[in-house]
Amino acid sequence: MVANNYLDEGWPHKEVIELIALGFTGKLLQWWNNCLTEESKENIKKAVQKEEEGLPIFDERLGRGIHDGVNTLIYTIIKQFVGKPSNITSRIYDQLSNLRCRTLGDNRWYEDVFTTRVMHKSDCNSPFWKEKFINGLPRLFGEKVKETLCNPLGVIDYDNQTYSDISSTIHSEGMKMCRDFKIQSQAKETKEVVSSSHPPQDAITFKYKGKDVLATPFRIPSGEEKLVKKVIKQNNYTNQCLGVIGK
């Protein structure tokens, strides 16, 4: 944060806060100008660090309390526009518990939202949240990801798995699934084309120039069946049609 740079250079908290306030815009600017009283602004600028009992922390080396105006300003803004930190933590827990990735197309959004929210939790690296991260995926796909992450004993070592590791596995399994779907789709299309190029084995009748034309399937003479090792089952409709058309 730029404020820390100014503080490191020895700028007083009061001047740093005034400099930050100059950059306020929109709702934040209206809050600073209209909502806060001059007394409240001065209290923020002169704020000092306090103990849990509420007593100021005195720096004997400096002979005064330790200034904490910048942090007080940030806390005041968060409390005004977001709420108490305890309420934020509670809301994050509810959001993560109900967050779901309905389809694989939502995966990027799901990962961004989950990892952003979970980092606000003090126990973000616990196995509970990492497993919850996977459980929020579509059920069958999530089971596939778990199978990939399992060690030879069938156990997932969440302690040694980062969110980045899990995301990489999700992306890898997603790519495999897409390739499998593409191959299956191509195989289905090929099967349909092959089926359409080999008409049924029964004879059919069609009209040509007002005449009924009978097209019979190709048959191998019974005496030659034993001599043929491989028979391509293809009907002779085209030749029969050409014969009729050529007359």
TrEMBL record:
Record-linked Pfam families: Caulimovir_coat_dom (PF22909), DUF7746 (PF24925)
Protein name: DUF7746 domain-containing protein
Organism: Lithocarpus litseifolius
Domain DUF7746: from-to ranges: 1-52
